[in-house]
Amino acid sequence: GAGVSQSPSNKVTEKGKDVELRCDPISGHTALYWYRQSLGQGLEFLIYFQGNSAPDKSGLPSDRFSAERTGGSVSTLTIQRTQQEDSAVYLCASSIGLPPSEQFFGPGTRLTVL
Amino acid sequence: AQSVTQPDIHITVSEGASLELRCNYSYGATPYLFWYVQSPGQGLQLLLKYFSGDTLVQGIKGFEAEFKRSQSSFNLRKPSVHWSDAAEYFCAVGGGSYIPTFGRGTSLIVHP
């Protein structure tokens, strides 16, 4: 069975542009998480979706960041007006149950903002 | 609030030597504890987890970890390290309905 997939694997953009990062979770997993991993840092929680419930957006660093999850499956993380400090690896994970269940991670999208 | 401390940023060991990676957590009740490994360019993979029961937990790839409530620790161990174990290791803590909190990670370097 397929794992969590993310696209693109790498994204280079110019400061001020908008970017969209995609995550395809494992089929049947009701929970989906987005994390940001900066160089030398741990995983910074961004947002959490569980089924049809309202997402937990408590980790989003600014209103330039948003995410949606369509049909309880695919998720898109959007960063508007990108800044250089947004450069990081963005990881998506899914799990079959409520937190703190085991999470299955995708390979990440490396975002570079010039 | 929950938190995790991984005091070692880098650990260097020789191939065949034993390994212990430290993890200390802060959580008000019995925690759920995880160790994940991240190879270069990859996502995180679960090595092992502790939810309840036996405090010595066996995981994949020959790793084990021991939950010590008195020390608020969940250290990861392996008796003999292989070159392929070189990676970034993350400890995480969760509990109740809280989303797991991850440590900053420990980078393992293996010398031949």
Task: Give the topology, please.
The complex is a heterodimer of chains A (114) and B (112).
Chain A: E1 5-7, E2 10-13, E3 19-24, E4 31-37, E5 43-50, E6 65-69, E7 75-79, E8 88-95, E9 104-105, E10 109-113
Parallel strand pairs in A: 2-10
Antiparallel strand pairs in A: 1-3, 3-7, 4-5, 4-8, 6-7, 8-9, 8-10
Chain B: E1 3-5, E2 10-14, E3 19-21, E4 24-26, E5 32-38, E6 44-50, E7 56-58, E8 64-68, E9 73-78, E10 87-95, E11 98-102, E12 106-111
Parallel strand pairs in B: 2-12
Antiparallel strand pairs in B: 1-4, 3-9, 5-6, 5-10, 7-8, 8-9, 10-11, 10-12
**What is the β-strand count of chain A?**
10
As residue ranges, the low-confidence spans of chain A are none
Mean pLDDT across all amino acids of chain B:
94
Helix segment count of chain A?
Answer: 0
Helix and strand content put the structural class of chain A at mainly beta
Which ranges of chain B are low-confidence, i.e. pLDDT below 50, for 5 or more consecutive residues? none
Mean pLDDT value of chain A = 93
Work out the radius of gyration of chain A: 13 Å
The portion of residues assigned to helices of chain B is under 10%
What global shape of chain B is seen? globular
Strand content of chain B: over 45%
SSE class of chain B: mainly beta
**Main beta sheet strand tally, sense and closure of chain B:** 6 strands, mixed
Outline type of chain A:
globular
Radius of gyration of chain B: 13 Å
Query: What is the terminal separation of chain B in angstroms?
Result: 41 Å
Secondary-structure element order of chain B, as H and E? EEEEEEEEEEEE
Helical stretch tally of chain B: 0
